[in-house]
Design a protein that fits this description.
8 helices, binds 3-(4-hydroxy-3-methoxyphenyl)-2-propenoic acid, alpha/beta, single chain, 258 residues, AB_hydrolase_fold, hydrolase, Mycobacterial_A85_antigen, 8 strands, Esterase-like, eight-stranded mixed sheet, Rossmann fold
């Protein structure tokens, strides 16, 4: 089903607004036993973040050409989220922007499609679950149950969100994929037990632009979810494999979670 309400944004949703409270984006470094080094991530804390309150956490993943700066540089999540907070449309959450290429040289340089680099996007499952999440939960004032943890991403990060979110239902109750890439597992592998997945997830979001050459990935996933009655939100929107679709994904998904 296509939902028109999920394809329109409030005017100026991604424009810096004067006179509102702002969150903060900082760079963190965390020890990764998975990779064997110290890795970078960005963390957005919302306006008024205070250790006397407990926050939910959204892990927001980048694409094949990106790193921990990609969302920040191109997607301006801090502006989108600050505006939503000013309009009282978000639950208290922090947003973590990791580097999803879990290898020693995790820069998006050289052949970004090289097999070892693609493999590193799969290795990230261990880094996320065993290294990054424990670091965030030890260093921020956050809720640590699955109901307060969400995973979403664009393209390769959308594939990761489906692969890792649906494979770890004990850890995530909210999963979103924007323009999921061909790293997305076949639907039968993503959801071997439709009843179990259906019961576990609060929101399962798929969106993609109608001009995106990778849309077959979302189409096949959506078709399987529909056939097997796995509740999900499917948003086919006007657009290509590009930022307007991904920013809308964040804007819409963030308002649905927690
Ligand atoms: C592919 C085409 C695109 C692929 C990945 C991508 C793993 C990723 C695109 C992106 O992250 O924007 O064949 O294979």
């Amino acid at each position: 089903m296509n939902h028109q309400k999920y394809t329109t944004q409030a005017a100026g949703y991604d424009q810096e607004r004067e006179g509102i409270e702002r969150g903060k984006i900082t760079m963190i470094e965390y020890p990764s036993a998975t990779v064997g080094n110290t890795r970078k991530a960005r963390v957005y804390t919302p306006p008024g973040y205070s250790s006397t309150e407990k926050y939910s956490v959204l892990y927001l993943l980048h694409g094949i050409g990106g790193d921990e700066d990609e969302w920040y540089t191109h997607g301006t999540p801090q502006i989108i989220l600050d505006n939503l907070y000013a309009d009282h449309k978000l639950k208290p959450m922090i947003v973590v922007l990791p580097n999803g290429r879990a290898m020693l040289n995790d820069r998006a340089e050289g052949d970004i499609f090289a097999p070892d680099k693609l493999e590193a996007f799969a290795t990230f499952e261990s880094d996320l679950l065993n290294d990054l999440i424990p670091y965030i939960e030890a260093n921020y004032s956050v809720l640590t149950d699955r109901g307060h943890r969400a995973l979403a991403g664009l393209s390769m990060g959308g594939g990761q969100s489906l692969n890792m979110g649906l494979n770890n239902l004990d850890r995530f109750a909210w999963v979103g994929a924007f323009s999921a890439a061909p790293n997305t597992k076949e639907p039968e592998l993503l959801v071997p037990d439709p009843q179990k997945t259906s019961a576990a997830l609060n929101v399962l979001w798929l969106s993609c632009g109608d001009l995106d050459s990778l849309k077959y990935v979302s189409d096949r996933t959506h078709a399987y979810f529909s056939e097997h009655k796995v509740p999900h939100i499917w948003v086919e929107e006007q657009g290509d494999h590009d930022w307007p679709v991904w920013k809308n994904g964040l804007y819409q998904f963030a308002q649905l979670i927690f």
